[in-house]
Amino acid sequence: MIRNIIGLSIAVLLVSCGGDDGPPPAPKGAALVFPEENSECTTGTDISETSTQVTFRWIASDNTESYTLSVVNLDTNVPQNISTTSTSASLNITKGTPYAWSVTSRNSASDQVASSATWLFYNAGSQTTYTPFPAQLVNPLSGSTVQKDIANEVLLEWSGADVDNDIESFEVLFSDTDPPTTSVGITNASTMEIPVGVESGTVYYWRVITTDLEGNTSDSGVFDFKVL
């Protein structure tokens, strides 16, 4: 009887020692290196009169087997994606054009992915002055549902950048129709938020037009959100 009890105890101990080790570690987000954030990329290899080949580089991230590089033409919003196990990849992109790029880290042992920061840059062209990067709409997130404050307002927030560092103003267009055409305010280069009046149960649309000292403008594109 005692022998049976001892045998059973050992079996239970072995099972507990060989139990679940938990989920595999999730990949970490990569740190971007080049092209640098809010910069003009001048090191591409000429492919034609209109395009250059640019090599994107980042730092290896933990628990990662492969990476997906995503490069988005901000004039057309068309992305180019390429997968690699390396920490660099080359793509042919259009000269004189603003781009956003980011890297997604993946591991086949995990169902989770990790995204890097998103950096903006201009691929060098023949121009000597550059249009501002389209404003990046930060809050509210597009498609989100938000709570208005006690003053029946929601705070719109964005970020802006320019290679020439000569942004003059941001104009916010906001309405309950798409696309929004009602201007609710113009802010200076250092002010990237504005409160707007809202009503519950309504979907709103907003966009930001950035203007620099040369008169160049860029359009953020339209975001929408619903108010509880």
UniProtKB/TrEMBL annotation:
Domain of life: Bacteria
Source organism of the structure: Allomuricauda ruestringensis (strain DSM 13258 / CIP 107369 / LMG 19739 / B1)
Protein name: Fibronectin type-III domain-containing protein
Gene3D superfamilies, alphabetized: Immunoglobulins
